[in-house]
From TrEMBL:
Region span, Disordered: 22-61
Name of the protein in question: Class F sortase
KW Hydrolase (keyword) present: yes
Transmembrane segments: none
Biased composition (Low complexity): 43-52
Entry keyword annotation includes Repeat: no
Biased composition (Gly residues): 22-31
Any Pfam family: Sortase
Classification via CDD domains: Sortase_F
């Protein structure tokens, strides 16, 4: 499968069901197994459904930084594309671990689900940038700093830990009618470099600054 950029509605069907998430072993991670054959409807993103009001959407501008005060994360953000097998790339296993934004998803603050991945561990280097992602709670703040100088602040609406075999691709990648954010890493029991589960944080845009 080639790494051509799909449209926002179609990027679910472009191999994202086989997402390589940031598990951070020496081998670089594990895959989920779900591969939707067609884009889901806007109602697919049930875990992020909330009465919380979403702020006005922003124009497209790539994220350059991400902060999550509740778990003391403040990280640069790199761009991620598609690997040759059609899975999403993950950040490299390095001592200066950072998060990565999937460049075929909306940028944070645009309408739709913006996807950011990070490692939970980084091989011999120890803890990864998203090592405490599962500690987030509803209402916690996440701030994405954008290349044009704007900032998009999100509020957590749900945190889910799911078996990789049951990865909820439609919930994660399905179209939504407001700006939302997905943070993804690994979790659960570990066997060597392999983690059984994924931790997924769902959040909705709550405010913006120029």
């Amino acid at each position: 499968m080639t790494a051509t950029a799909p449209s926002r509605r179609a990027f679910v069907a472009a191999g994202l069901g086989s997402l390589l998430v940031g598990c951070g072993g020496n081998g670089g991670g594990g895959t989920t197994s779900a591969r939707p054959s067609s884009p889901p409807s806007p109602s697919a993103s049930k875990p992020s459904a909330s009465k919380a009001k979403s702020a006005r959407s922003l124009r497209r501008s790539e994220p350059v930084g991400l902060s999550i005060p509740a778990i003391e994360v403040d990280t640069p953000v790199m761009r991620l594309g598609l690997a040759r097998d059609g899975s999403v790339q993950v950040p490299p296993i390095t001592a200066d671990d950072r998060a990565g934004w999937y460049r075929h998803s909306p940028t944070p603050g645009q309408v739709g689900p913006s996807v950011i991945l990070g490692h939970v561990t980084v091989g011999s280097h120890g803890d990864g940038v998203f090592r405490h992602l599962d500690r987030l709670r509803r209402g916690d703040r996440i701030v994405a700093r954008l290349a044009d100088g704007a900032a998009a602040e999100f509020a957590v609406t749900a945190v889910r830990k799911v078996a990789k075999a049951d990865f909820p691709a439609d919930d994660v990648y399905g179209d939504v009618d407001r700006p939302e954010l997905r943070l993804i890493t690994c979790g659960g029991p570990r066997s060597g470099d392999w983690y059984r589960d994924n931790v997924i944080v769902f959040a909705v845009l709550s405010s913006t600054s120029p």
